[in-house]
Design brief:
- About 45% of the residues lie in helices and about 10% in strands.
- Helix 2 crosses helix 3 and helix 3 runs antiparallel to helix 4.
- The N and C termini lie far apart (about 45 Å).
- By secondary structure, it is mainly alpha-helical.
- The strands form two sheets. A three-stranded antiparallel β-sheet has the order 1-6-3.
Length: about 250
C-alpha cells in the first residue's frame, strides 16, 4: 500500500471536482458520507433535500442528476486514478465523502477521501487485480446504490447505468486523449477495453456488462456518444433543456 501523492491530488483538484483537504476557515455547506447512502431512509432524506435545494420540478430528474454526479466522482476519483497513475484508491463507501462548498443550485459537491491510501497496480497481475477491484467497486458499491435509487424512485436501472457510462466514455474516449502522452494512453486504452469488453455481467451484479452496449452508440461530431435513454434533465424546471447527447435532441 502507498498513498496518493501531492502531485496526483493536485492533478485531481485542477482537472476534476476533488478537494484534498477542507480549509479550517471554510465551513462546508453540506457533507455526505457515501456509506449512509446505502441506507434507504437516509438516501430518501438526502434526495428530498437535494430536490428542494435544486428547486427541481420532477423527482425522477432529481434522482437522475444525483446518480450522474455520483457516477462522475467514481469515474474521476477511482477509474481515472487507476488508468492515469496505476493507483487504486480505497473506493469503499466508508472512505468517500461528498463536500459541498458553494450554493450553486446545480449541486456540484466535491469528492474527498477519508484515507489517501491506495493500492499500486503492477503490470504482472494488473488485469487480475483490476477485475477484483472493479468487481468490488461495481457490485458492492455502485450497483447497491443504484438499486436503492431505483427502488425509491423507479428510475430505471438502464438510465442509472447509462448515467455512469456517459462519464466512463467521456474520460476514456475524449478527456484522456488530450491530457496524457502516448505511452500512458496505451495503458488507458487497455484499461478501457478491459472495462467495456472483458468484464462480464457478474462483475457488476448484472446479467450483462452494462457498458458494453454503449460502444455501439453513434458518436456525435464532437466525439461524444449519443445516449440511448433520456436522463430527464430537461424536466428539472421550466428553464431546463435537453443534454447535448440526449437522444431526443440528436
Amino acid at each position: 500500500m502507498t498513498r496518493l501523492s501531492e502531485r496526483e491530488e493536485t492533478f485531481m483538484e485542477d482537472h476534476f471536482r476533488y478537494v484534498s483537504r477542507i480549509q479550517r476557515d471554510s465551513e462546508p455547506y453540506e457533507i455526505i458520507h457515501a456509506s449512509e447512502l446505502l441506507d434507504k431512509q437516509t438516501l430518501q432524506k438526502k434526495l428530498d433535500e437535494i430536490h428542494v435545494f435544486m428547486e427541481s420540478d420532477f423527482y425522477l430528474t432529481t434522482a437522475s442528476i444525483f446518480s450522474k454526479r455520483y457516477s462522475y466522482y467514481i469515474v474521476t476519483g477511482v477509474l481515472a486514478m487507476i488508468s492515469a497513475f496505476d493507483k487504486c484508491p480505497d473506493h469503499r463507501p466508508e472512505n468517500i465523502r461528498l463536500v459541498r462548498l458553494d450554493e450553486d443550485k446545480k449541486w456540484f459537491p466535491k469528492l474527498t477521501f477519508v484515507s489517501k491510501d491506495v493500492e499500486e497496480l503492477i503490470a504482472v497481475n494488473r488485469h487480475t487485480r483490476l477485475r477484483e477491484q472493479l468487481t468490488e467497486l461495481f457490485s458492492e458499491h455502485v450497483r447497491p446504490l443504484f438499486l436503492q435509487i431505483n427502488q425509491l424512485t423507479r428510475l430505471s436501472m438502464n438510465v442509472l447505468w447509462e448515467n455512469f457510462a456517459i462519464y466512463l466514455y467521456w474520460f476514456y474516449e475524449r478527456y484522456a486523449e488530450n491530457h496524457f502522452d502516448e505511452e500512458r494512453m496505451a495503458q488507458i486504452r487497455d484499461d478501457f477495453h478491459f472495462i467495456v469488453h472483458e468484464l462480464d455481467g457478474s462483475s457488476f451484479g448484472e446479467e450483462k456488462n452494462p457498458f458494453h452496449y454503449f460502444s455501439y452508440q453513434p458518436k456525435l461530431p464532437n466525439g461524444a456518444r449519443e445516449r440511448k435513454c433520456c436522463c430527464l434533465s430537461y424536466k428539472l424546471h421550466e428553464d431546463s433543456g435537453y443534454c447535448k447527447v440526449c437522444p431526443h435532441r440528436c
